[in-house]
Amino acid sequence: MKNHLGITLLALSIASATQAADYVITAAQWDASRQAAVEAVGGTVRFAHAGAGVAVVSSERADFLDAVRKQPGISGAAPDRVVQWQQPTEVALSDAELDQQTAGNPFTNPLYALQWAPASVEAPAAWQLGYTGKGVRVAVLDGGLFNAHPDLAANVDVAASRSFVPGQAFNTDTGTFWHGTHVAGIVAARDNNTGVVGIAPEATIIGVKVLHAGSGAFSWVIEGLLYAADEGDADILNLSLGADFNRGDRDAAELVSALNRAVNYASRHGALVISAAGNDGYDLDHSGNLITVPAMSGNGVAIAATGPMGWALGNNNARRPSSYTNYGQSMIHVAGPGGDFAYPGNENCNVAGIVRPCWVFDMVLSTSRAGYSWAAGTSMAAPAAAGVAALIKQRFPDADGAQLKSKLAQSADDEGKTGHDPYYGRGFVNARRAVSQ
Asked: Cβ–Cβ contacts within 10 Å for residue 344, how many?
């Protein structure tokens, strides 16, 4: 359970001459002439976005890639690639324990006693000032969203939620955890007298399924991102996913370029794109040819993770950099609570009647398909920052994505070395300061 959170890549198998394969194509602008150029060399456009200059094309032609790269106006092309974007660490809390914890508990939300993250960003003070994220739309680009969860149901815009995974609905996934459901709860679990509470408990969640069992094609992520920015009408886009590539890999570089275009389009159209920084402990100021996306994509922001070590024993420093977080002054915008699992040993601790190994309580508790689960990662830090951004958007309803980005940094607490820091960027997010300054 205490394994390092790594990232692995899965490449699509090479298509045979008679089997259709998908390609991601970019152009300075996508118009009828670009479509004609693709069709002239045997491509069928199945998705195109004029504003971003990105298209997804299928072809059975064995030499399609070489042919389309030579067409006028085409700036890039690469075979679509399936990536394993997520490998979470999690511990589930069973229904029996939840029932026992709920009975006669003095807390309005019975599991709030196990949540250190909201207090670490001073979210309760923001709630007391009347800021809960009401009216703000946050798209969760992830795996399946269990919209029937009692802590989420009232906040999910089912009509706007979509799946870009072929053959899957937005509210399907595998197993009992469901990464996207955990992320959604961190943003906006409802304050409803049961379970947990999100950082922005009245924000609206749009489920945008781009992964299944943590895996997904680049095209799914790109299409989902552009949907969220346009038809989904999202103010904030949360991408708790990540993968690493070598800049020298031409096909990977073309896919990264296409993702950059999608992120920048969303930013130009008023949304803030928030991404997890990654969980491999990389110093991204000195990473050579390594590129981590979407953390390093376009005009979005990357969130590093912090977490306590021994919280159940009274060690409450929730702003300690997590053992696994990627870092780098050139990349990290701000840090947020992502949890950790570095506490040594496996002795049990008892918090509010729940008994678990002490290190489990250092993780982030949120909603899951089975009920509630703990998890740790920059995947958890990103939605905490997205929740704070939602509070800012409620406070400043006319703020666009660039202004939200600036206010998120300006209101953060300066941690680490003075000023811009490799682990904290501009600081650790602070909900109270974000809505009161």
From this structure: 10
C-alpha Rg value of the chain to the nearest Å: 21
Beta carbons within 10 angstroms of residue 159's beta carbon: 7
Judge if the upstream peptide bond of residue 294 is cis by omega within 30 degrees of 0: yes
Cis check: omega of the bond before 397, within 30 degrees of 0: no
What are the structure tokens assigned to 117, written together? 């993250």
- Strand spans (E) along 295-437: 301-306, 332-337, 348-351, 354-357, 364-368, 371-376
Q: Which residues of 201-215 are buried (b: 16+ CB within 10 A; e: fewer)?
A: bbbbbbbbbbbbebb
Contact predicate 30/48, CB 8 Å: yes
Specify burial of residue 157 (Cβ count, 10 A radius: 0-12, 13-18, 19+).
middle
**Phi, psi (deg, nearest 5) at residue 182:** -65, -45
The label of the residue with tokens 């899957």 reads: 168
Tokens 């990536």, located at residue:
83
State pLDDT tens for residues 191-230.
998 899 999 999 999 999 999 999 999 999 999 999 999 9
Q: By three-state DSSP, how is residue 52 classified?
A: coil
Q: Let me know if 191 is a catalytic residue.
A: no
Catalytic residue among 240, 275, 297, 379: 379
Checking if the pLDDT of 311 tops 80, the result is yes
* CA proximity to 351, closest of 113, 100, 119, 117: 113
253-305 pLDDT tens trace: 999 999 999 999 999 999 999 999 999 999 999 988 999 999 999 999 999 99
pLDDT digits (tens, 9 = 90+) for 95-151: 667 666 665 555 568 899 999 999 999 999 999 999 999 999 999 999 999 999 999
- Is residue 333 within 8 A of residue 301, CB to CB? The reply is yes
379 is catalytic: yes
Examine the residue annotation and report whether 179 is marked as an active-site residue of this protein. Answer: yes
The residue from 49, 149, 179, 182 that is catalytic is 179
The encoded tokens of residue 326 equal 């990627």
Q: Which residue among the candidates 22, 142, 151, 235 is catalytic per the annotation? A: 142
Residues 6+ apart with CB under 8 A from 165: 209, 210, 211, 212, 216, 220
Rounded to the nearest 5°, which phi and psi values hold at 103?
-60, 115
Closest CA to 136 of 208, 197, 210, 187: 187
